[in-house]
Amino acid sequence: MPDLTLRGALYRLTQKAKGVGYSSPWRTIEDITKDEEVLADANEAFLGQVLLHAHRNVPYYRSLLEEEGVVKGEKVDLSGIARIPPLTKGMIRRNYEDLVSRDAPRRRTYTDTTAGSTGEPNQVMKDTGYDGWRLATLLHYYEETLGVDFVGSRQLILASPTRIPRRGLERMLGELLRNAVRLNGHLLSEEAMEDHVRRINSFRPELIYGLAQSLHVLSRFIERRGLRVHRPKAILSTAEPLHDYMRKEIEGAFGTRVYDIYGAVEADPIAGECRSGSMHIFSYDSYVELLEVAGSGGAREVVVTPLHNFVMPLLRYRMGDVVLSTPPKCDCGSVLPTIGRIAGREMDFFVREDGTLVHGSNFLILGDAKWVRAFQVIQEDYRRIRILLDSDRTDIAWQRHVDDEIRLVMGPDCRIIWEPVDVVPEALAGKGVFVKS
């Protein structure tokens, strides 16, 4: 494996202490990604295992898989997977307890929470087996495609600040052992970006990993100021669509190649860009379907089944994303299947009167409340924000807490207007936009 260093050994020990083992999945990935037929067989085997487990242990799926003829006794009919009704965020919230495996008490589990880019809050339970495959996938992708070690190489992360608690201490320790430095990509004032450039030049990272729009805003700042900035081996963009104009400006500012990676809290990572520019599905970790969207002119909806999360199997989960094209087979030599460019999941930046840009992810706090079905945050002026809220109840104390959190990033004189609605407006292709400036 690529992390045979003291730092790598310490990182592996900390993961092992949490019950996360990634050595075995990494070796499996190495073996099955050398041949297309072997990979396809492994993908089917993993899919069969999670379907059989769901039938045996998950109340939500017990009768459903039998009724649809997908599982009969101990036999699985993979050809019938299309008959399983796809899951949505709302269905997960309504059936949360029934989606948890009955053997959860015997597993080491945790809960991830996200509002996603649709503005619909979501909670997903995961286990350490899922984490092992996630880490192995990233290790393999970093080494084979980006040419850097996931553990040990100097990495600079431009994303959300670490929050404590909510696994914040674990993340901070993991990043320390991985030799990673985190900068706040959510608040981008002129002063903050000046400091970011100084940190990049002093740390000299081999890899810069960040939110697509944050990377783009920082790149424009570098070009506008005519600054010299350290050139990393690669830049990895995540969380939002990486448009061609954004890629061009980021690569121009840093003088290096930008790669795109696709994933979500429910299934992460799903696909990563190769050196030839194609997005390859990590099909040993996720089973991906592209369903035609009626009347869209060829757009396809992304539906994903994570293959290694047995504590809460999400069979045919609707990501809420669409791809606008189906690419031909890539000539890079990888046997992994490809997926078109993602056309969704875009977040606006809000802007303060002093010019500071505030990333839309700052408003994910709205998704922490289980009674919130959907929301949209609209910046109408520098000091006025309107929140459209579709929820089961009104909680004044919680709203005041949200107000305080928003004013921390938007300023103490920001006026926040709460507006209850029955339906939150949706963008094209049914993709909700949770922030608008």
Q: What would you say this structure looks like, in words?
A:
A hairpin with a 2-residue loop joins strand 1 and strand 2 (75-76). The longest helix has 22 residues, at 36-57. The protein starts with 5 loop residues before the first helix and ends with a strand. It has helices at 6-17, 23-32, 36-57, 59-67, 89-94, 96-99, 128-146, 168-177, 190-203, 212-225, 244-254, 396-410, and strands at residues 71-72, 75-76, 109-114, 122-127, 155-159, 180-184, 187-188, 207-211, 234-238, 258-262, 271-273, 279-281, 286-292, 300-306, 317-323, 338-339, 349-351, 357-359, 372-381, 384-391, 415-420, 435-436. By secondary structure, it is an alpha/beta fold.
At a glance:
With 437 residues, this protein is of the alpha/beta class. It has helices at 6-17, 23-32, 36-57, 59-67, 89-94, 96-99, 128-146, 168-177, 190-203, 212-225, 244-254, 396-410; strands at 71-72, 75-76, 109-114, 122-127, 155-159, 180-184, 187-188, 207-211, 234-238, 258-262, 271-273, 279-281, 286-292, 300-306, 317-323, 338-339, 349-351, 357-359, 372-381, 384-391, 415-420, 435-436. A hairpin with a 7-residue loop joins strand 3 (109-114) and strand 4.
Sheet with the most strands: spatial strand order: 6-5-8-9-10-11-12-16
Name the CATH architecture of the largest domain.
3-Layer(aba) Sandwich
CATH class of the largest domain: Alpha Beta
Mean pLDDT: 86
Query: Strand portion, in percent?
Result: 15-25%
Number of helices: 12
